[in-house]
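Researcher: Last one for today. Full complex below.
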Amino acid sequence: MKKQPIDQFAASLPAWTRANVLGGSKIGHEKRTKILFDHYGHPDRLRHLAGEIKQHVVENLDTYLPQAEARLAANGVKVHWAATAESACEAVHAIMLSRGATKIVKAKTMVSEEIELEHYLAKRGIEILETDLGEFIVQLDHDTPSHIVKPIIHKNRRQIAELFEKNGLGAYNDEAGVITQRARAFMRRKYLEAGVALTGANFVVAETGRLVLVTNEGNSRFCLAATRCHIALVGIEKILPKDRDLALLLNLLARSATAQQLTVYTEFILGARARGQPDGPDEMHVIFVDNGRTDILASDCRDILRCIRCGACLNVCPVYRQASGHAYRSVYPGPVGAVFSPLMLGKHFPEKADLPKASSLCGACNEVCPVDIPIPDLLLRLRDKAYQEGVPSPGTPPMGAWAILATQPAAWRAALAGGRIVNYLPTSLIPVPALRAWESSRVLPRWRGGEFRKWLKARRKPRAQ
Amino acid sequence: MLTAGRNPIAGRRVQLMATCLCDAFHDDVAAATVEVLEHLGCDVGFPEAQTCCGQPAFNGGNWDASRKVVRHAAQTFSGEDPVVVPSGSCAAMLFHGARLEFEKEPDLGEIEGLGRRTWELCDFIVNGLGVKAWPGRFDAAVALHRSCHTRGTGSGEAAALLLGSIAGLRLVEFGEGEQCCGFGGTFSVSFPHISKAMGDLKLGFVLEAKPDLLVSGDMGCLMHLQGLADKEGMQVKSLHVAQVLRDSLKAAR
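Model: Here's the assembly. Have a good evening.
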């Protein structure tokens, strides 16, 4: 029998990887819950409010995007629009050519992963250096991130120490402090060699054109201090209407993502270096990236565009904890990724139509989401979409015959009586794959079909109608 | 809250939806539900034409098939009498899931009507009938597994309130109580590895708390957890909350 890819991936996961992911996510979730409930009497009310704000943005992007563009332009920022991943990469490349630059220092941006920018630029002789520690380690290991916020949640420090040794960053030493110092020493030189800084943006405020970046390592600030040109890659859904909305969203983002009151660095950027300002880029570009987002906007799953990439749904998800982020074959893993990643593929949706199946629909993701996305409902809609498009779903029992039984009471009662056969025949003789899958790890209780109805009939006095 | 906007309870007539799992495997749970409701003075009707709530196909992605079954349920459980279900999962299917899959259907109103009169058993007892304490006696340390489909409803708290009020019964907390047990309906057979791993984690936390009994309001979760424990030779005894409530009454007689 064919199997679900994510279940197979989880089954083949080395024990230590599973332990890293399970342990890391669990701690992340517990800290998040503690800080939210310690600081706020009713964090759920804040989540609902933030959800309403972001949903409002999603439904009014046609107003807010032009407003943001006008404000950014007034602040001296060059605004680019990229409909596809490729056009986004081209836009970055064109800016590099115009400046004659060949090296980029890059802070964390999920959009750059999404459009596979590093690969695109490498083929054109342009080098990107990751400056986020986790992303730097991923880059050094030719690996891919497995978590939105903690890209190397699947690795432990012994593996990182081995990696550093192999790459000439000092003899084996797995102390976290030593690893960090070595990465820091290596990067400091690189900042000064680079001509361009690349970042994402956590929020762009339409009212003011303010770009907001949060980091914990100060690397984005270094990127901007050391280079003369700043490019920000921004998904079109990253808009907030007003500066005042930042108060709520930043408070929720830091607590949900890393259980912090505030990230160590929160940068508010209103444009390139102003006159009299000693450091910072004198040229700034914002590239708004669509890459499938307007198709999502047109679908009945547009709520997913509220996402602020905090990773809380990954941390709490029991399936993510067992399978790890790499099981999702996507830049965006976990519950949010199971909705976002297949939808982004547009007509190639069937390639990742199995992702929304990888959920027990337990609803924990919705319960922790800082913008209250009804993720389980969206997963269910995508399961229906996959069925409508005729995508096969390995291991899912066929439901047509069941529906016939369940709409014909006489046939249903006959099946209840007939089901007794499972009490007498060994499973190997019963050609029902779902039953075998059940019994691979569980005992099936004794079939007692129809017994309740008999009991009821025997004791029941006729009911007065 | 998911269950907001439900019809208040007027009379004492109720319709029992036994659930397909009780119809096929767990007849004693359905019988206990009848006895518990009758103890509360309810006149319990059992529409013979009932089958299933439609959830397996809904979760499996075949909404066409699921809608047929939900329509059948709406016909079967017609009228204004509340529908009481000894399963948080089937109840949530009727007041939440069905609404989702009928969004663009002409008979959405009728389906929403069924949702407004559907109650999970403990939710019905505590929030529908206003009963806050349970008589009798039941001597046991109980680990209550709050099934996931009661998130955002009053069921989890209602079950804890009723069980906690029984003389002799002690509720014991266990680790990661809010995590899913790994059943998830069709998920349990299409993702057998992850489903088992999740169940093993749950059983580990439950056994650590050393309860006499594992109790839940959903037979899906219990069938999965008990089935895992039996296969692995772990000593776990489980009961549905309706069985505990009924057995407590027996002790009082």
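Chain B has two domains: 13-128, 137-252. Residues 192-208 of chain B form the longest helix (17 residues).
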